[in-house]
User: What shape does this take?
Amino acid sequence: MMVAGGVLGVKGLWTTLTDDTLTVTAGADVVINNTRIYQTGIEMEFNIVLSENEEYYLQIERIQVGNMKLPLAGAYKFANSIATAIASKSINEMIAEYLSFGVFNEEELSFTVGETELADYLYGVDPTLAALLKIVYKESLLILDISNEGFDIELRLGQLRRLLTDPDEPAFDRWESEADKAAFMADLGTQAVLNAIANPLDPYIDMSEADLNSILDYTLDEDVQFEVPFVVPLSGTDIEYTFASTNLFIRMDADVLSIHLLMSLTRAGLVGSFDMQFNLSSHVSMNAGGDMILTVIEANLGQIDLDIATLATLFEIFDPTLMIDDTLVIPEEKVNEMFEGSGMAITDSYVTGSNLRLHYGIA
Assistant: This one.
């Protein structure tokens, strides 16, 4: 029993769930000189509504102390004073501390939890988890229900499973240091000078998949790649999972450049994984300002086709300036950073065969 002020003791807290109601009950005793002289209880009843935007909205319908049904405003103040006396925190403060993914409205006496709050919470863990949640909500892959046994959660991840036709990461050399990049760019610069001598009016150089993946992998570093461990309690046992990804990699074919991110969910003690892969195909060009433009052709995650609006929402999590209409815009300064040390100033680019052709001037 937790005793506040030597008078009021709280000795239990439990919940009861029905189809549309959550009842929270606390047992309470009045104690004088360590002797219990009166036993009572406090009940708070919440109505539960699943709104059209996939949010759960819980509003206090009733607060009862013993057999007394109190007006909500007065009852909440009374319950709040008890919480403050016992925990030195108000109900609002405790909700903010322990339920960081929901919003409590003290005036309406309501609690709301949904996509926005959960996405913000997961963004603090890892941005990619928040992005994945947005797809889950948009495609109605998360089914929430309430029964007498509690919250029923069904996550239909099967539609996100990696397809047999999804491309694999190509073999390429991963750079370990600036020295590796400097050596590559020095060789590239030498080749660029020779090409400029042979074709001074319009020099160009072809970059292979392996070369571009080396540059991309080193430039992105760990900005996109992630590894998030988490634990799920199941039948009294903590089950350890890890959600992780490779770095972004690219493939090229005909006149198309495609971007891919492989993600895997693994369980400790079990061999194998549940794999998902994000794929986006595009045409490559340059604008007058020297920015590289990737015009989106199509994108998918497993069986889910991602439209432009969904892509914009996903990329906004990482960089709100990256996607404009149906294009991904890589700024001129980022392009120059990727090829820093080569002595090239890129003026045009497009995919031909399995190479990215770069037209350039000598910087």
Q: What stands out?
A: The chain has two domains: 2-113, 178-362.
